[in-house]
Amino acid sequence: MLKPFDLNLRHLRALGNVVALRSLNRAAEAAGLSQPALTQGLGKLEKQIGVLLFDRHSGGVTPTAAGLALAERAERAFAHLASATRRPGRTGARGFSRPEQLMTATQLEAFLHFSDAQGFAGAAAASGLSQPGIHRAVRELEQVCGTALAERRGRGMVLTPAGRSLARGVRLAAGELAAGMDEARGDPEVGGRIAIGAMPLSRALVVPRAIAHFLRESPGTVIDVVEGSWRELIDPLLDGIIDVMVGALRENPPPQIDQVALFTDRLAIFARKDHPLAARQVTLDQLRGQSWVVGPQGTPLRAHWEALFAGDPPPVPVECGSVMVIRGLVMQSDLLTLLSPDQIAVELDTAMLVRIDLDLPGSVRTIGISTRRGWRPTRAQQRLVDLLHQASVETRLHENQ
């Protein structure tokens, strides 16, 4: 299968010149290539992707829809690399003024393997490339960028801040090129891969329902569902490892993140069906005398729980971010918990767990979609986002019936 860095970056850079100038001769001059070399390079790109990028005629060349799509995505890819390598306020530093223009696909692919493995031996084992080849690629990128990208820490290697920035830029660039190849081919309804970051509530009802709808339309697409908390998923989202994140929105998200609300969720207290407080009205003082299993410190769910007791919370013998573990503990003990009804819908339907009768003012949180600012989804990705909106409506209607 064709991968983003199987494409020649120099020829991809020249695509923008060809689109703008409509002439191979002028585009070759602007790109610093000979006209035969550019012609041969464009022909290779067309053969690799399997589509015609330009219509050739006596007056020059005209980009096809595929050529325009790939050129635009390539421009976005190089913008990610530029953003990752240019540091504000840097004066008198080593390196080149536009390092992204000098990088090769071989170097970037090797660097990604190195950053994932945090070492030359692991990168070689994972990629099939030689250790000397990976070492050479990393050192060449350091020369181009004018800064260290990795440093030895004990017996291993770790990325420097500049190295982490470059790794993020390379992943985002690879994502843009992959999208460009899909769009150039017409972004078919089947095939490809989409990654969703699913926080605990979203993976109970909304994400499964949206994926089920999507796969009925596009059965050949592979959906990766990456489970985790917001803190576990935010970096993979920013790195481009996942495409969208679904779950509780933050009041003050990072500036690189856009948030769109899906629905509001009202939390409630739950216990096993034979709990001493089940099927009776309770007071806050009675709840303060109980033991609880709740999420870890720093999570929105924990903040809601602490606000409930106004600074005088009851004991928490178990802190846990896994809804599966929480459900098991509550069903087998007298522990109470604070969750969304969506997260334990099956247990509520079968009366294995019951709601404790106490109104919880202020226990509402917004569930939604988080994406990278400036993210431009492919048609398939946008369809999945649309289905997440549809699934949120459908699950709310089902809940209220």
TrEMBL record:
<protein>
    <submittedName>
        <fullName>LysR family transcriptional regulator</fullName>
    </submittedName>
</protein>
<feature type="domain" description="HTH lysR-type">
    <location>
        <begin position="103"/>
        <end position="160"/>
    </location>
</feature>
<keyword id="KW-0805">Transcription regulation</keyword>
<dbReference type="InterPro" id="IPR000847">
    <property type="entry name" value="LysR_HTH_N"/>
</dbReference>
<feature type="domain" description="HTH lysR-type">
    <location>
        <begin position="7"/>
        <end position="64"/>
    </location>
</feature>
<dbReference type="InterPro" id="IPR005119">
    <property type="entry name" value="LysR_subst-bd"/>
</dbReference>
<dbReference type="InterPro" id="IPR036388">
    <property type="entry name" value="WH-like_DNA-bd_sf"/>
</dbReference>
<dbReference type="Pfam" id="PF03466">
    <property type="entry name" value="LysR_substrate"/>
</dbReference>
<keyword id="KW-0238">DNA-binding</keyword>
<dbReference type="InterPro" id="IPR036390">
    <property type="entry name" value="WH_DNA-bd_sf"/>
</dbReference>
<keyword id="KW-0804">Transcription</keyword>
<comment type="similarity">
    <text>Belongs to the LysR transcriptional regulatory family.</text>
</comment>
<dbReference type="Pfam" id="PF00126">
    <property type="entry name" value="HTH_1"/>
</dbReference>
